[in-house]
Design the sequence.
């Protein structure tokens, strides 16, 4: 979960990766435009010597994959909608080059059955035995659906942050890293400008084809 290698990639001289969404200050250092004339150093995030370093990285990674995750988050509700309307629906889940095509009934049945089993079998040993019977890509799909509120709410928080910042209102958002993906990372509170800066940083990396992969559920590691 370390994205400082991105900084090294840029710093070590591929100038073609530093043109979009950035400027250079009088010292020749790369700056990222947050909005208008507000800029941050390329190397501001993730922050060293702070208890927010790990959550900086988590937020950056999930911002990088916003469009992909929004579509994934909607797949369960879309499956319910089309199933109830007796219409055909398929969702192609592509994760790290692994591909799984789900029909509406497969999504509904799989999510509901897995929810029921894990709810009725709270012992971690039993849950792990059950998860071991599933395909790894199915486990990944399940836990991204289960934790969709984490990233959907994060994207909503960014929009609220922008609105509050430009209206000169205080806004804070508490990041609670999902336990299904991360161990012992404590919640942290972010201001509007912090969210906006990290988003600008993440999009700069994406524009320059520097993208950190999404985490896999810790039960598969």
Sequence:
């Amino acid at each position: 979960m370390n994205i400082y290698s991105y900084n090294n990639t840029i710093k070590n001289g591929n100038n073609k990766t530093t043109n979009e969404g950035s400027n250079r200050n009088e010292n020749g250092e790369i700056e990222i435009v947050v909005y208008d004339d507000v800029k941050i150093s390329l190397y501001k995030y993730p922050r060293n010597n702070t208890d927010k370093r790990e959550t900086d990285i988590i937020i950056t990674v999930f911002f990088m994959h916003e469009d992909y995750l929004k579509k994934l988050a909607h797949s369960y509700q879309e499956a319910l909608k089309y199933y109830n309307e007796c219409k055909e629906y398929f969702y192609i889940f592509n994760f790290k080059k692994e591909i799984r095509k789900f029909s509406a009934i497969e999504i509904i049945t799989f999510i509901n059955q897995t929810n029921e089993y894990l709810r009725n079998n709270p012992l971690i040993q039993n849950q792990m035995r059950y998860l071991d019977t599933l395909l790894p890509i199915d486990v990944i799909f399940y836990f991204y659906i289960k934790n969709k509120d984490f990233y959907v709410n994060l994207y909503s928080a960014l929009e609220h942050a922008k609105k509050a910042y430009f209206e000169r209102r205080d806004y804070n958002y508490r990041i609670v890293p999902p336990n299904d993906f991360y161990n012992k990372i404590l919640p942290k509170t972010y201001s509007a400008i912090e969210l906006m800066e990290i988003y600008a940083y993440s999009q700069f990396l994406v524009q320059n084809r520097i993208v950190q992969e999404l985490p896999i559920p810790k039960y598969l590691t």
